[in-house]
Fold this protein.
Amino acid sequence: MKFLRDTWLVFARQLQLQIRQPVWVVVGLLQPLFFLLLFAPLLTAMVKQAGGTSESAYQWFIPGLLVQMAMFGTLFAGFGIIAELRAGVIERMRVTPVSRVALLFGRTGRDIVTLFVQCLLLVVLAIPFGLEVELGPLLLMFGMLALIGAMCSSVSYGLGLLTRSEDALAPIMNTFSFPLLLTAGILLPLTGAPGWLQAVGDVNPFTWAADASRDLFQGAWDTATVWKALVILGGLAILGVVWGAREFARSVR
Amino acid sequence: MIETKGLRKSFKGRGKTGTVEAVRGVDLSVSDGEIFGFLGPNGAGKTTMLRMLATLITPDDGEAMVAGVDLRKDPGEVRQRIGYVSQGGGVWDDSTAREELELQARLYGMTKTEAKIRAEAALTAFQLESFADRRAKTYSGGQRRRVDVALGCVHQPRLVFLDEPTTGLDPQSRAHMWDEVRRLRDLGMTVFITTHYLDEADALCDRIAIIDHGLIVTEGTPAALKREIAGDVVTLGLNGASARAGELLDKEPYVNSVEPVEGALRLYVEAGAAAIPQILRRLDDEGIALASIELHRPSLDDVFLAKTGRSLRDEPAATKGA
């Protein structure tokens, strides 16, 4: 009970502060727009050259883009915790009886809500371009995005607490996030890739997420791909959150 | 209010440096309702001790009762009963004083209504109303510091730890902070304070303790500690000839001890008025030119120097965060 209450307190504060920081809101909303307006036409042109329709290009691209946003939007959450450490806010809260894990969960919750707003905006904006989606699969899609967000932001907070320096965290994040993104077949399909690259893609959980996401946008929510992705991401989310929480409890005793 | 016995903490050093024993068995006793000053050079174990008492780090060994609770058995209950204000403070730039106070009160378990009332009371008590709803990034150093202290006291703890509350403040804000600290004591709170300023410790604290190399070297009221240093202090300003003059004067019968401090020499003598002519004569005989000479009663600075062999004022930059 106390844990839930504390989580809510931390969540509400973090959300309030985020809304107050207009730069973050604008940047967060602009990012999906950039992909929609600056990258999607490029992809559409390629699909048309190959004989497809522009609608089918969006139907393929947007689901993957949502997965990418879930990864990138939350992987950099760790920078926030470093700033808070430096400002003394974390220490100030540590001397209160607040639940230690709530300090993490409240923040992760905020990250997921932010992610939902961004993703919802992207979906709504893509509909005029020919994107089609049903409500049921979309809800399941957001569930999957929440799992990705919970995992990535927890890991990011954990790494932030471990490194305690933006200069160390930035290269770590870039080193891991870009290979994960590229081998997940989000920006371009992996179908034409050499065998070894496809093999790398097969063990990348985000490949599963992107594939499942596309299935969901086709209205197929009970395919093997979807369930596998949910199980894999669910397991990874649990691992990520547990590790992040332990890191929090260890350094924020 | 605080009672420790043999409190210890060591840290694993990086690489080959091995273990650093930051606090090596501290016995400390702080009574209810006093302002207790905790002094020490950087790296002496001051901050480690403070952070242990405030539950931020766990002791390796020893016993401690803080605000009536066993620190090692129930740190959660200690947290509920104490307030802690860190050296750097902890106000978020985009928050306002009122928001931070309300949140802090809620983190201590108060309901929304209670928290609002407490925050309002703290705003009034610490005179923060005029900027209560402005963002913290617009606050002056003194205003921010007062918000920090208010945050540490919003749940009305019986014991509050203030880690160098006046460092970096201008003289006026410092005086204001002293008044706040005295007001807290008058409300019945016990204030445990660390400071870099010995004049502050002298003026503000009911009792002080000096820690050095992880051990308490002395403890008592400022007046009693100063009385321990018998006689007078003569400070000589010497242009570069300190070492030779020190050697010379140390042999004189009327000089109890000699301490070099940054280009000057401090002599502890029985009676200043009688010693000064003799000092002048001795230096003149040797042809050592004197830049200045000063006679004063022992201050806490002299106590500090006598106990630690270092002057707190002239201490070089910190080598270790402990």
User: Anything to note?
Assistant: DSSP finds eleven helices and no strands in chain A. The interface with chain B takes residues 2, 6, 9, 13, 16-17, 20-21, 84, 87-98, 253 of chain A (CB under 8 Å).
